[in-house]
Design goal:
heterodimer, A: 349 residues, mainly alpha, MetI-like fold, 2 domains, 68% helix, B: mainly alpha
Chain lengths: 349, 325
């Protein structure tokens, strides 16, 4: 019994630590004068404020859906593990129906106690699951895939990019060779091949996406490092006799940080979209996990039905669209603030 | 020029070899012949059946070193050399689906892919350049602002939604086009119009924004200031000076995409039932046809390298500042 508790607590803690770490980093960066200025500039753009708010709402639901505790059933005076119950399920517990029901339909069929006690705001799908609940759960899948993949590619991309850009010569040749070889395989085909080998699953999907998408980050970091390495501050650091290691991570890394931030935020939306496409091909997350890709895949035939079943696809699409749109707008604002090249007198590029 | 191209090709060879290595690791090392046989023949297949299947496909050799073979065949009679040789000579063997040569299939499948991707490419390029010019001309006005806003909106929609949405609107609701399918001859126009439309619309947002950024970046250059100070009006500056210079990155970017037109589009082809290379890859995937996936990956990699070489050459041709060294 204890192991179930430990399992759930660990899983919840992991998410809390990641989100807490993110908040801590931002607060810590805020103390730096330059970053403080940057944050102020980002905050002064209305659309960035709105999209930040929306992203925070999504994050809140994600957090609710990530904190869970085990549920037990008493059978013959013994506690038997049923499943993990998340905070989201505590707050919103829709009844399970037998099959489709239209949006705003009242609870019926299965549970006599729940009958007429509430409504399905977005209807139910073919299995009788509440569509709104599935869309909420899709948030968790999207954030897990976007976040975990970013966590995988950040260290790899940054490390190899810095090494290749700073040392040049053999290191550069090796790193560029590896990533140009990977880049020349069509991304979707490589993903298909990898997922076929790894099998379905969220973690597997993250690893496969990590393998294909560290290339972009590495290439950008390498290019920027090559520019930075000839700057005066690097030369003076070297004249002072600082080690290569110190120069790379203490001096160059903070100066390429803005590029890393922009790339990873704008990549996030691409990762969410990739999950949807792979789920349609049957290679994403396992079908029993509610994800937006699975919902869209299910609804392929539903539009041709009579009467048309539109709520499944519309709900999944709106949840996904709003998230991706907010991330895109937010990332664009950050890029405009941080990247001086895209700023032309009064024109946003 | 000739030496430049030759050297460029020589640079591409190690990368192609790297792809061969990766495909070997993916399809021989990580998925062993036995797992492939089990996926093809089913979990309950008898051991002898699996063994004979593996033997029939020539997959029962050792990976790198064959101790049983005599002489030089100790090295050559292995899975690795077989794999490399089949890719170098484009002899991909037979498909697991219907035992027909994969190379023939790929050649016949490239045609339908091209009839779909070529119009999408040309129309997409034309439309995105025109729109980005309009936005650059009206930069910092409401037209530009809302235009870019619409572009981001369009970029944020997954391609599947475009496909499903337009299929529903035009095929189910308005009954203008068949929902999916394929026909030979001129009859295929009926089937191809909707996919082309979807393909153009789906790619528009991202490419307009990309080209607009290029144009806007050009407007900050010194030659634009010179042209303006000569007293040229804004439209002349835009169409005569900026467009010409912006064409360099735009064209080289477009050249990069040309070889990939043969590859088709995985999702669109699959949804609309176009028998192109994209749907070939999906079919191969669903039927565990590993040699076909391997072949498509390899051909994709070669096309990518050709694209890179063409880009470099066209860049050097268009931009006189670039010299062949």
């Amino acid at each position: 019994m204890l192991e179930y508790y430990i399992n759930d607590i660990l899983r919840s803690l992991f998410v809390l630590v990641i989100i807490g770490g993110g908040i801590y980093t931002v607060l810590r960066m805020n103390r730096n004068r330059i970053w403080h200025d940057v944050f102020r500039q980002i905050w002064s753009v209305p659309i960035a404020r709105i999209s930040f708010g929306v992203i925070c709402l999504y994050l809140f639901v994600f957090l609710l859906d990530s904190i869970s505790y085990p549920l037990f059933k008493e059978v013959n005076k013994k506690h038997v593990f049923v499943n993990s119950r998340t905070l989201l399920e505590v707050i919103y517990t829709p009844a399970r129906e037998e099959s489709y029901s239209a949006p705003m339909a009242k609870y019926q069929f299965t549970d006599k106690k729940m009958e007429n006690k509430g409504i399905h705001p977005a209807g139910t799908n073919i299995n009788g699951e509440d569509v709104l609940m599935n869309a909420f759960k899709g948030i968790k899948v999207a954030f897990t895939i976007g976040g975990l993949t970013t966590l995988i590619i950040l260290p790899i991309g940054i490390f190899f990019g810095l090494i290749a850009g700073y040392f040049g010569k053999g290191a550069d040749t090796t790193v560029t060779y590896v990533y140009s070889t990977l880049a020349c395989i069509p991304e979707i085909l490589l993903l298909i091949a990898l997922m076929n080998i790894f099998g379905n699953g969220v973690l597997q999907l993250c690893i496969a996406l990590g393998i294909t998408s560290w290339v972009g980050l590495c290439r950008i970091v390498r290019g920027e490092t090559m520019k930075q390495k000839n700057m005066e501050y690097v030369q003076s650091a070297r004249a002072l006799g600082q080690s290569h290691f110190r120069i790379i991570f203490k001096h160059i890394l903070p100066n390429v940080m803005h590029i890393i931030l922009i790339t990873s935020i704008l990549r996030f939306s691409g990762l969410v979209m990739a999950e949807v496409i792979l789920s349609y091909l049957g290679l994403g997350v396992p079908p029993e996990i509610a994800s937006w890709g699975i919902m869209i895949d299910q609804s392929r035939g539903e539009l041709a039905r009579d009467p048309m079943v539109w709520w499944n696809i519309i709900t999944a699409f709106s949840f996904m669209f709003i998230l991706i749109l907010s991330v895109n707008f937010f990332g664009d604002t950050i890029r405009d603030v941080l990247d001086p090249r895209t700023r032309v007198k009064g024109v946003k590029a | 020029m000739k030496t430049y191209i030759l050297r460029r090709i020589l640079y591409a060879l190690p990368v192609i070899f790297g792809v061969m290595l990766i495909t070997f690791v993916l399809f021989f090392y990580l998925t062993t012949p036995e797992t492939i046989a089990r996926q093809i023949l089913g979990e309950k297949a008898k051991k002898e059946v699996i063994q004979s299947w593996i033997h029939m496909k020539g997959l029962d050799k050792p990976y790198f070193f064959n101790t049983e073979a005599p002489g030089i065949r100790k090295v050559t009679d292995t899975l690795f050399i077989d794999h490399i040789w089949s890719l170098v000579t484009f002899q991909f063997g037979n498909s697991y689906q219907d035992d027909k040569p994969i190379m023939n299939k790929i050649i016949t499948r490239a045609g339908p892919s091209l009839t779909f991707t070529l119009p999408v490419f040309i129309m997409g390029l034309f439309l995105s350049i025109s729109f980005s010019l309009i936005f650059a001309f009206f930069r910092a006005t409401y037209i530009d602002k809302y235009g870019t806003f619409l572009c981001v909106l369009g970029m944020s929609i997954v391609i599947m939604i475009y496909i499903i949405g337009f299929q529903w609107l035009f095929s189910i609701k308005l009954k203008l086009f068949p929902i999916s399918g394929w026909a030979e001859g001129t009859d295929k126009v009926r089937f191809i119009l909707l996919p082309i439309f979807v393909g153009v619309i789906a790619g528009l947002g991202g490419s307009i924004r990309f080209y607009r950024t290029i144009m806007i970046e050009e407007t900050t250059k010194d030659y634009v200031r010179t042209a303006r100070s000569k007293g040229l009006n804004e439209s002349l500056v835009l169409f005569k000076h900026i467009l010409k210079n912006a064409m360099i990155p735009i064209l080289t970017n477009a050249v990069m995409a040309i070889p990939f037109l043969f590859m088709g589009a995985l999702l669109t082809e699959n949804f609309f039932g176009i028998p192109g290379l994209g749907s070939f890859a999906v079919e191969a995937l669903f039927s565990n046809d590993f040699p076909s996936i391997k072949a498509v990956i390899y051909i994709g990699a070669i096309l990518y390298q050709i694209g890179l070489i063409l880009t470099d050459i066209s860049y050097a041709l268009v931009d006189p500042r670039v010299v062949f060294e």
